[in-house]
Amino acid sequence: MHDLRHGAASLALTGGCDLKVIQAQLGHSTIVTTADTYTSVLPQTAHDGAEDTARVIIDAARTISRNTRHQPKRRHRRTKPRSTAHATTRTPVVA
C-alpha cells in the first residue's frame, strides 16, 4: 500500500501537480516533508524543472530584445557652443 501511495505522489509531481496539493493529498503536516521526500525521486522531474526555468529566462530575453529593437533612436545634443552674438541682442530678464 505504501508503494502505491509513493508512486501516485511521484507521478502527480512529474505530471506537474503543485507540491502543496500533493502535501494535502498525502496528509503531510508540512510541505518540507513532501518536498524532501518527492522532489529528488525522479530525475525527469529535475530535468523538467530546469527546462521550465530556462524557458522563462529565454522568453524574458526575447521580450527585452524586442522592446529595445523598436525604440526610436535618440538625437544627440549639439556639442558646439552657440555663437555669443545672439546673447547681446536678447533683452535681459528682470526678476
How do the helices and strands line up, and which of them pair or pack?
Elements: H1 2-14, H2 19-26, H3 31-38, H4 43-69, H5 85-89
Distinctive features:
mainly alpha, 5 helices
In summary, what is this structure?
By secondary structure, the protein is an all-alpha fold. The protein has helices spanning 2-14, 19-26, 31-38, 43-69, 85-89.
The SSE order reads: HHHHH
What structural class should be given to the helix and strand makeup? mainly alpha
Query: Helix coverage percent of residues?
Result: 55-70%
| Discrete helix count | 5
Given the C-alpha coordinates, what overall shape results? elongated
Sequence stretches where pLDDT stays below 50 over 5 or more residues: none
End-to-end separation? 91 Å
Biggest β-sheet description? none
Number of strands: 0
How much strand?
under 5%
Mean residue pLDDT: 79
Cα-atom radius of gyration: 31 Å
Task: Give your account of this protein's structure.
Helix content is 64%, strand content 0%. The protein has helices at residues 2-14, 19-26, 31-38, 43-69, 85-89. Helix 2 crosses helix 3.
